[in-house]
Description:
By secondary structure, the chain is mostly helical. It has one domain (10-298). The chain has helices spanning 10-34, 40-49, 52-62, 73-96, 99-106, 108-121, 127-144, 153-175, 181-203, 210-236, 239-242, 248-261, 267-298. Helix 7 runs antiparallel to helix 13 (267-298).
Amino acid sequence: MTNQPANERPVFGIGMMLGSVTVFAIMDTLVKWLAADYPIYQLMFFRSAVAMLPVSFFIARAGGLRILKTQHLGLHLVRCTIGVGAMFSAFTGISLMPLADAMAIFHSAPILMTAMSVPLLKEVVGIRRWAAVIIGFIGVLLVVKPGTEVFSHGAIFMVAAAFFVALTSNVIRVLGRYDDAACITFYFTLAATLASSIMSLIWGWKAPTMGDTLLLMLVGVLGGCGQYLMTLSFKNAEVGLVSPLKYLMIVFGGILGFLIWNEIPDTFSLIGIMIIISSGVYTMQREARLKRQKVVTIS
């Protein structure tokens, strides 16, 4: 694992992450809405099976079936296994707690990603970014509230999802040096479809209404697009640069949670959310400033 990314296109990576964040925020809102009536593994099935449609389109654009050839099946297997665990944990957590709180807890993942990028990818993280990571994690603790009555089963699932996402995001970063983004997305989507199909066979299937079927299919379309955009982001920019942008999902989740379920975070959650966002924004600005200084020095 070297410290040289496959491509050096930070602006493109940032744009892809912004698109991914927006798409996933809408998808998570639909998941929370549908989870009241359907089992989590059924949501996972539609999320992955229907996502094969946009993924197939991306594969065609990227060069056809030849891009699915890989010399790194072991890494793909690791990425898929961790990714399926992350999806199950995240969907379960979202269904059990307010959307803004769930997304805030989930965003310990970018914090962990930045930390993990040092030993896994040999990327350099300065003292100021480390400080922002630590402060951001304190903000997450304010939202999670461990040891209090507010700490719920949903929070446990979201913390697990954050850990899984941190791992899989760094694996994606490595795979992106060898395989196309569409290839990486395809194998994960296929694995999630197979895993959720097996769960459905074991635990049963609830027939959805026509309207809910359309919403379930939309979850899949959004999931496929969001996954591909995220994969492109990590392939083209450093983890420490693009991961703070995921904090925007907290804002989107808070707005959607309030508009749909009248959810209002408590005082500690609001303080924690503001700390998390501030930490993320600072990390992003610091990274951009260092890159500009590097360009000036080289010039």
